[in-house]
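Hey, I'm writing a tutorial for new members on how sequence and structure tokens pair up, and I'd like a real worked example in the thread rather than a made-up one. If someone can provide the structure for the chain below, I'll link this post from the tutorial.
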Amino acid sequence: MIKVSIKNLKPGHTLARDVVRPDGVTLIPAGKKLGASEIRLLERLDIQFVLIEGEAFTDAGERERYLSREKKALELRFSRVENDSILMAIKEIFRKNLRQRIFDEDTFAQAPSSGKGRPGHDG
């Protein structure tokens, strides 16, 4: 599965997960090939991301190389604050989130419960 911004969706992409409202009602089911009308609906509902079928990486090696580069960048960002326990805890949260974003496939798109929501956004 690939997490894709609504801005990058194209007609013909196939949803890998249901798009659901906060009350659990399915708006667009998994397996649906998206057309222009579905993409407009997602935009109107202020949905930011959905999961589509396919792989973001060509193989496990590419995935691991990407993860390694991102971990190095994270280390560099926090290298000047190694003695600050709070910032180190924040760094650990970022590290775990990075790995989860790459390997976790349990994320799904939701319609916002209010006009200010950012469904599917990792934070």
